[in-house]
Amino acid sequence: MSGKLYALSTGPGAADLITVRGARILGNLDVLYAPAGRKGGDSLALSIVREYLGEQTDVRCCHFPMSADSAEKEAVWNEVAAALDAEVQAGKQVGFITLGDAMLFSTWVFLLQRLQHPEHVEIVPGVTSFAAIAARTQTPLAMEQQSLAVLSCTAPESDIRQALQQHDSLVLMKVYGRFARIKTLLHEAGLLNCALMMSEATLPGEQSWRHLCEVSDDQPLPYFSTILVNKQWVRV
Amino acid sequence: MSGKLYALSTGPGAADLITVRGARILGNLDVLYAPAGRKGGDSLALSIVREYLGEQTDVRCCHFPMSADSAEKEAVWNEVAAALDAEVQAGKQVGFITLGDAMLFSTWVFLLQRLQHPEHVEIVPGVTSFAAIAARTQTPLAMEQQSLAVLSCTAPESDIRQALQQHDSLVLMKVYGRFARIKTLLHEAGLLNCALMMSEATLPGEQSWRHLCEVSDDQPLPYFSTILVNKQWVRV
Fold first, then answer.
1. ipTM score here?
2. What domains appear along chain A, each with residue ranges and CATH number?
3. How far apart, in whole angstroms, are the C-alpha atoms of residue B96 and residue B112?
4. Which tens digit of pLDDT belongs to each residue from B193-214?
5. I want to staple B29 with a disulfide (CB 3.0 to 4.6 A). Which of A144, A208, B95, B225 is the partner?
């Protein structure tokens, strides 16, 4: 059997929000690469998929630095991509797990860019955190002719302001450390009452805030916090 | 046991791209409502999930008219919402299946708006068609500070033109019947070479076009056709 690399989207957090395909592939891997937040630390993605892993699977945690030093980050991406390439060349069934969906704001893409043999790659898509938040809060993402923008709160303020004006719905990801600034932008756009925030959606620590005007600027937030704005949603 | 209504996202089309949660719930339903394209016609959503259904499940196909007459559409939404409410009140475990993700461009939202007891509803999110297209074509949706816009090609031309200018990546859904117009907009924005199109992603009839400049304006397209634009994507 020839080697193959699967990029496996875990979905938003609950173990059963992975796809059936993802769960089946996890049971048949020789090696699984799991990203870890800290060096030697736990991997949230690994904790999500652990129940699906086969006994034969070697698990390798890899740490991607959050560093602002892009040379340091690129060195790690090069190293992990080379390791993945080597496993596939050795004929192994290799997995790389990634939170949410593999193609949206994921470190996986930096690895994909560097792989020597993309033809041996299968990417298994997943449920995004914002689809989970829309489901949990019963808030639509878009209907009919409406448009949806998905932004990171690390984007330039002018881009966020413009998107708030132009789209019917918005997903603002990576709120952590930027809540006060985003709250001000929402207030200026007259959208504070159309916004909600959710942290760690579908995980045991899930929290939600329906009335952002009541949330203090220095509210401590978990790392995975997202704001969803829908200007149009009304119940009949 | 008290009644409950599950809105079950099927994902993009391949049966194994439903979530594990969705598959498990399907096995335990008393009744499943499935939307059908034509009156008395087949339901694509039903064909996707059929393998997960329990033997005890009653399947009811319901037809939602594509009519421009909103009174006719609203009458059907009211009727189906009332039927769902009644099943839940009778203590049943009820499912409603919906293609892609339930909260994005889905008829489900018109039913949700009309339900008398949203507290008995659980929405199970799903993989969107555009996540599947990104995975199949190995094209990222967004990275780092980039932004993504998701639009319907039924939106006003000025909105599409503006979004093409402002976002790094775009998903243009509902291309069917509007390809020539969208191709012109992409050409005017200088983005024809950054765009790809896929129809019926992950279904047996999947087709893709990497070079839209070579696709004729009157190319016959399946109903489920989507264009993905990424201005920044380069392999290292």
1. 0.96
2. 4-127 (3.40.1010.10), 130-230 (3.30.950.10)
3. 11
4. 999 999 999 999 999 999 999 9
5. B95
